[in-house]
Amino acid sequence: MEIKVLKNILSANDEIAERNHALLDKNNVFAVNIMASPGAGKTSLILETIRRLKDRIRIGVIEGDITSSVDAETVGKEGVPVVQINTGGGCHLDANMIQNALGNMTLEDIELLLIENVGNLVCPAEFTIGDHKKVLISSTPEGHDKPFKYPLMFHTVDVVLLNKVDLMPYLDFDPEIFSQAVKGINEKVEVFPISCTSGQGIEQWLSWLLAQMNNR
Amino acid sequence: MHELAITQSMIDIVLEQAEKAGAERVETIKLSVGELSGYVEESVQFYFDFLVKGTLAEGATLSFTSVPAQARCRNCARVFKLKEFDWSCPDCGQDSIEITAGKELFVESIEVE
Description:
Strand order of the largest sheet of chain A: 4-3-5-2-6-7-8
Oligomer: heterodimer
Shape of chain A: globular
Distance between the termini of chain A: 48 Å
Number of helices of chain B: 2
Distance between the termini of chain B: 32 Å
Largest sheet of chain B: 3 strands, mixed
Order of helices and strands of chain A: EHEHEHEHEEHHEHEH
Order of helices and strands of chain B: HEHEEEEE
Low-confidence stretches of chain B: none
Number of helices of chain A: 8
Helix content of chain B: 25-40%
Strand content of chain A: 15-25%
Strand content of chain B: 25-35%
């Protein structure tokens, strides 16, 4: 006997993600899912964001890593609440992990939740976690062809931060090819060139972020 | 890269449906996998064989249907098969696209006894 199923394999994850989203909304927490390959600058961006915004808004952080708590300790020094998730080999954060992490945070004390996903351009694009906006950091040393190699990731996000633009003079990176490829697969996406080292473009990123929070 | 989690979710769906139908055994599981979703069949099969031991789905055959990545040109609306490293429309040459297929990850149907 044949049974028609037609069920999305990720539906169980999506349902938990919807519950996370509702919980965040109930507590007026704006959650941002920060994705990138390893070493693109996720932790640096989070640190810059905290340093420039913590006097104005209350920030919390979820750090996703395969192992270790190095990032959580670094971020914790900025005086904001941090929950570390170790995926134990898992290549992405899923909705269930975020649900558990949210249970370990005092959500009433947080306005902006920065979620650092596991460094990877494949899996995090497919697992919804319940965020409000998705941020992708792509860095110039990775090359301008990244959008062609990871179309699903570039297609999924709301903003692309092109990090390490201060290194551009030393690299064979064509920002035109990069921007055109990103816009080609994601018409609505915003692209901001930034450098977490020199500070270039960080204010534009923060303006965008604060505008998204206000327009939620 | 995350076939373990995916395979477990797939098996949960299959077993739920099979139990609901009062089946004694699952014979075949038909899956639709989009090209862009990046799943490796061999890897799903590997985890599957391991995870279904002692369940209704032990010994079931996995049948994969690959869904090609497809895009629609934002300029002329032509629908075409997406090539690697090139998003230009075969008709008008513009490279602004909307993905229309290739992200699928579905349990299509199961054959039970």
